[in-house]
Design goal:
With 71 residues, this protein is mainly α. The protein has 3 helices and no strands.
């Protein structure tokens, strides 16, 4: 992942990151259903989506940690 993409993600709010992660999860669900019904392969995109969700969840936790310490 390019540095510019990472900085773009860091600039987003927690709500934006969560909505983006949810959209990726929905795409993965659709891919699994298409794979079981139509016999399509999940492919490399599935792996990329899984890693992107992990990145987003990491950023969400990083942003939530300072807020939790402030309370």
């Amino acid at each position: 992942m390019k540095k510019t993409a990472k900085t773009d993600l860091r600039a987003k709010s927690v709500e934006d990151l969560q909505s983006q992660a949810e959209a990726l999860r929905t795409d993965m669900l659709k891919a699994r259903l298409a794979g079981s019904v139509e016999g399509k392969q999940l492919g490399v995109k599935y792996r990329a989506n899984r890693r992107q969700i992990a990145r987003l969840e990491t950023l969400i936790r990083e942003k939530a940690a300072p807020a939790a310490k402030a309370k």
